[in-house]
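In response to reviewer comment 3 from the previous cycle, which asked for concrete evidence that the modeling workflow produces usable outputs, we include below a single protein chain processed end to end. The sequence was submitted unchanged, and the resulting structure tokens are shown without manual editing.
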Amino acid sequence: MTTRRPCVRFGPFSFDPERLELVRDRKPVPLDPEPARLLELLVDHPGVLVTHEQIHEHVFGDHLPLSLGGIGICARALRRTLGDSEESPRYVQEVSGEGFRFADRVTPIAPPTRPDPGEDRQREGPPRIRPRSATSGSPPVPSRPPEPEPVAANLAMVTVGAILSLLLLAAIWWLGA
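The workflow returned the following structure tokens.
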């Protein structure tokens, strides 16, 4: 039997990293999967700079190219959920051009007493991240099992490719005519 990762408390919130559930004043707070995974990564390493690359791999996986815009949207959604401010953040602090860190104190608390419906699927512990030093090379990236590529994304890419090919052929025909 593997050890369950502890729930954590910060400010008026508690967060269960096993279920990716956020609670405030004993009421569940809706949180989309990507911001929940970002919160999971940040609270697992409070005060530590987590790079854009590490965030991208943990939140989006390897099947998508690195997108700082996507990471920014995810961070803004998490801040909005936490009632945090970009100008003077209490929880999610951006380090310009590098990544994010969780700025508040995180305290482990007892896990909820309700039964765990997903106890069969045990998650690995938090990804390992070492603080980045000025002399080290690129920081280690937390490992995450590869996720299958979504069929809808593949279909969309093929459709866009076909449309662009048709437009290119039409332009060549028009210029040649």
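The first helix runs from residue 33 to 44. We consider this sufficient to address the reviewer's concern, and the full set will be provided in the supplementary archive.
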